[in-house]
User: What shape does this take?
Amino acid sequence: MVSHRNNTRGYGPLDAAAVPFEILKGRIRQLYEGDTFGCIRFRYALLALDVVTVLFIVATSFLPRTRAIEALDVVFGILILADFSARMIISRQPLRELTRLSTWTDIVVIISFLAPLAGEAGGFLRAFRTLRLLSDYQMVARLRVDSAFFQRNEEVVFAVANLGVFIFVMTGVVYETQRSHNQQIANYADALYFTVTALTTTGFGDITLPGTAGRLITVVIMIFGVTLFLNLAKALLAPSKVRFPCPVCALQRHDVDAVHCKACGTILNIPDEGLD
Assistant: This one.
């Protein structure tokens, strides 16, 4: 008897269908994890998309809903959905992704942008994605290579990012939970004003959040906001450090003018461009 194969390579129907998917999966993983120039530009584009999305959400909170804004909502929703789907496809542990807060914030954001009745509700959670990109090892490593400013101010950048994301998310929470019944929160600027005054514990009292839920939101803003603000102040006032791994003990950060490692005493050869 002559055996008939589905193709010249001997793949069965399911195997033949799986091969193009595996090729596609490999190409997507290369984009997200590769170190070629094109892959690096792609990940910078994702970071730019997150920043633009945040600015879009803030700007549209001051504007009436129009067809143009709703169309842009759909465009952003499709882009975020494509990014989310790609990350799920290349994930080595897809089920573990469902246990992460960032996964569920992305789902809320996608629904928010693609469902017209939802408006912009929940879209502010997209700010978490910017923080996740900045904490991605490959992205951080690339910024250390590409940006001299980032090299010199890495701790400050992260402190600003943490504080900025917190302010933006809490402003969104205040706006979405109060605008329907609190006349003092008429737009995003009112919510931002309240968040900043609560965070700095200034407490002018001209805007308040009534009820138990409002008081709890205020407490969260004051406790976590002050902590993040102090971390920023610490990063700004702390002596400048450079990232240069010690060849013996692997201590990562040292004083700019360090000659010896303060942990093990090994002589360091930190590159120095000299004084102007």
